[in-house]
Structure formats: structure tokens, C-alpha cells
Specification:
Largest sheet: 8 strands, mixed
Strand order of the largest sheet: 12-13-14-11-15-16-17-18
Number of strands: 18
Number of helices: 14
Strand content: 25-35%
Distance between the termini: 63 Å
Length: 436
């Protein structure tokens, strides 16, 4: 059997890609397709992919041409893959001619002529820019603005904030051009909302009523009744209302979820997530933009619990420590969940510090993600026999925000986003965090 291996980004899979894949397939009996990860692509200077890795992998799978799909993640991997899979032929487009001659030492190298006039770059460049308005005054707004620069097809239309808060100089300058939320909506196709959660409901509702798509930092609102109203309103108008927990869109988190669902640690019986930060909080002077612990960290801590064990828990046990004179502001909250077939716990704090790790326990082993697990580029699968332990490394760019923007853009275009947070999870998050 002749094995053929090829690599590519395959962003916005088009006829040129398909012709190359068909010709690669015809060179042998078994085709291995390597899909280049975003982070490795960035290291080569090509950072503006328009689709997430999972979307590009799925597009290749649906062609039916690949007998095996792998991910290209590091320099020198081609040699490792050729040896590992015993490939007989390496093939790639003729625009790389001569670049991979060194691989002739390991297998036959074949350069294929590319289809003229078709490219993913051209397809991206002809996409209409989506104008996104920003709402809020915390540092996460700065990060969102910066990450938009890595995504083709979006532009910042302006910003609205009650105060300059922690905004950088560029965003503070934009404030002068938008004196009201209505003014921002008038020049936006979509909004990213990261204001105080108390303001989310009215801001989200007004945007949807004006026909504007919304991605909102979780929690989207503070009651399930309000969420059901917003969700129904968005659906009735054909608009996107997306939950903005950035961890959900990071490569490492999604790879970890796939491994767990694939049974790497057996049946999961326990999930324990901790997210804390030390903030200088004075009862006499609480900044208006400061989120309480359960809103700031609760959605992130609840994400792996609900993703793995589901939302049908039987019972909860809760403890919260609030600030004197501010019953709606918790310094620390712990919630334990009892399921029919497992247990879970989350600990969150703004004025309390603990080890911010994630531990997922199963019948065959456990997953350990060190602090800060919500920004991880590394996790371990650990087993009874330490020699069976496996380590997983993934470079983290943009804390998942970049791929959140990509998913938002694709949902607006009517495409499927494979890492989207289901409304059932968003609703349960709101149910938990809405009460201190």
C-alpha cells in the first residue's frame, strides 16, 4: 500500500484545495492530510485564518478524501509524521517547489501545480467587514479590540463606556466619538458587551431590538427569565446572541474536551474547578466597573462542569462570603453539585486566593490542568502507572478571544461554530451566578 501525506491550512476550503487533494489521493492508496494549527501558521507569518482549526478539520473530513487527518503544530513535524505513518510520498502545491526537497531523504517528494486564480486570501478579502461596537470599561475590552486585528472580516466601529476605567489610550480616544449607547448601535452591525452584568439585560435587549448581533461576556443577564426572553427575541429576528466565555473557544480546552469524551480517563465522576484573583476591594469604595466574584469567575468555573457532567444535577450546596454593606458583592463563593453519577465543585473569589487548578477525575485516570487553568497551554492525563502519563502542549494566543471572534463571525454568516456554548449551559450558568 502506498501512503501519501500532504499539509495545508485549508482556510475556506475551495475548489483549488479539492483539486490538490484529489490529485494527492491519486498518487497512492492511503491519504494523510495534515491541517496546520493556527499557532504554527502564525509563526510563519500567516495569522489571518478565517476559520477555526476544528472548522477546517471538519471541512476536510466532509470531503471524504482523507483516510487520516492530523494536526501540524510544530517545526520539524513533517519528518516525524513521515516516519510515524511510514509515508511513501510527500506532496504539496508547486508554490512551495524546492522548499521541501530535504524530505527526499525520507520519502518521495512531489510538487503539484496549483489552480490559478483561486485562493483563501482572496475569498477572505472579498468578505464584507462586520462592524463591531464595544461596550464596557475593563481590561477585557482592550484584549477584545487587540484580537480583532488577527481576524479578517471585522472592524471596530466604536466604543461606549460609563467611564474610561481600564481602557487603553486608543479606546479612550474613541470614546469622544460615541456619547451614547444608541449612537454606538447606529454605526454597528454587532456589539461585544463587557459592561457590569447588572447592565447586560437592557443593553443586549436594545441591541437585538435594533437588529444587531450580540456577543456578551457571561453571564448574559442575571435571571433565567430574562435570558429566555433575550434568546427567544434573538431567534425570532434571526440574530446571533453568543455567550462570551473565552476559555470555551481556546484550542487546549477543546482538545481536552474531545479527549475526555473519547474516554481517555474513563467515566468522569468528579470535576473540581477553582478561579480566584486578589483584588484590592474596599467596602467604602467599590468601583462601578468591578464585577463580584460569582459573575467575574463563576461562568468560567462552571464551564467544564456543565460541559462534562451536564446541567441535570440533583442538588447544590452553596457558601458565599459577601462584603459588609454590599450583600450583592461576594468576595468568595463555593458551590458543590451532586449528580446521579458524579459530583462537582467550583470555587471563585475576587478577594480570596487559592490554587487556580482544574482536576477531572475518572475511572481510568484523571486530567490535571495547573493554574491558571482557564488560560492553559498545557495539561496532563495522569494514570495509576506514571509511565502511562501523557502531556499535552498547545500555544495559547489571545486567551481564546481570537477564536471566539471567529466563531461569532461564522455564526453570523450562517455557518456552524463547533465550540459554541449551548443555550442550555448559558441558562444554567445564569441560574447559579444570578444569586449570591
Amino acid at each position: 500500500m502506498t501512503k501519501v501525506i500532504t499539509y495545508g491550512t485549508y482556510d475556506f476550503l475551495h475548489e483549488g484545495h479539492l483539486r490538490l487533494l484529489r490529485r494527492a489521493k491519486a498518487l497512492g492508496d492511503y491519504l494523510i492530510v495534515g491541517v496546520t494549527a493556527e499557532d504554527f501558521d502564525k509563526s510563519r507569518g500567516k495569522i489571518n485564518v478565517g476559520q477555526s482549526l476544528m472548522e477546517r478539520v471538519e471541512a476536510i473530513r466532509q470531503t471524504g478524501l482523507a483516510d487520516k487527518i492530523i494536526i501540524e503544530e510544530y517545526e520539524g513535524q513533517k519528518i516525524d509524521d513521515i516516519r510515524r505513518y511510514e509515508a511513501d510520498i510527500f506532496t504539496v502545491g508547486s508554490d512551495w517547489e524546492g522548499k521541501f526537497d530535504y524530505l527526499n531523504e525520507f520519502c518521495k517528494v512531489v510538487y503539484l501545480d496549483r489552480t490559478e486564480g483561486i485562493s483563501s486570501t482572496e475569498i477572505r478579502s472579498h468578505s464584507q467587514e462586520l462592524r463591531i461596537g464595544l461596550v464596557g470599561e475593563t481590561n477585557i475590552v482592550n484584549k477584545f479590540k487587540n484580537e480583532c486585528g488577527y481576524v479578517n472580516g471585522v472592524e471596530i466601529s466604536g466604543i461606549y463606556a460609563d467611564s474610561p476605567g481600564m481602557l487603553d489610550g486608543e479606546l479612550k480616544g474613541m470614546l469622544e466619538n460615541t456619547d451614547s449607547y444608541d449612537a454606538l448601535l447606529e454605526k454597528s452591525d454587532a456589539v461585544y458587551i463587557a459592561s457590569n452584568p447588572k447592565d447586560h439585560y437592557l443593553q443586549v435587549k436594545k441591541a437585538i431590538e435594533k437588529g444587531i448581533h450580540v456577543v456578551c461576556e457571561s453571564p448574559i443577564c442575571l435571571t433565567t427569565e430574562d435570558f429566555n426572553e433575550l434568546h427567544h427575541l434573538a431567534s425570532s429576528k434571526g440574530l446571533v446572541l453568543m455567550d462570551g466565555i473565552k476559555t470555551a473557544y481556546s484550542l487546549a480546552f477543546n482538545r481536552m474536551m474531545l479527549l475526555i469524551k473519547g474516554g481517555i480517563i474513563g467515566d468522569v465522576l468528579s470535576v473540581d474547578a477553582t478561579c480566584t484573583s486578589l483584588t484590592d476591594i474596599s467596602p467604602q469604595n467599590l468601583p462601578s466597573h468591578l464585577w463580584n466574584s460569582i459573575c467575574a469567575w463563576g461562568p468560567t468555573a462552571l464551564l467544564p462542569i456543565f460541559k462534562i457532567l451536564g446541567t441535570d444535577y440533583r442538588q447544590t450546596l452553596r457558601f458565599s462570603k459577601t462584603i459588609q454593606g454590599h450583600d450583592d458583592f461576594d468576595l468568595f463563593t463555593k458551590v458543590s453539585f451532586l449528580y446521579d453519577e458524579g459530583v462537582a465543585s467550583m470555587k471563585v473569589g475576587q478577594g480570596v486566593k487559592s490554587e487556580g487548578e482544574l482536576v477531572i477525575s475518572g475511572t481510568k485516570g484523571y486530567i490535571y490542568v495547573p493554574a491558571p487553568w482557564w488560560k492553559t497551554d498545557y495539561f496532563e492525563a495522569r494514570f495509576e502507572n506514571p509511565s502511562d502519563n501523557r502531556r499535552f502542549f498547545y500555544q495559547l494566543d489571545g486567551e481564546g478571544i481570537r477564536y471566539m471572534i471567529l466563531s461569532f463571525l461564522n455564526l453570523i454568516k450562517g455557518k456552524k461554530a463547533y465550540n459554541q456554548i449551548p443555550s442550555s449551559i448559558s441558562s444554567k450558568i445564569i441560574q447559579i451566578v444570578g444569586t449570591v
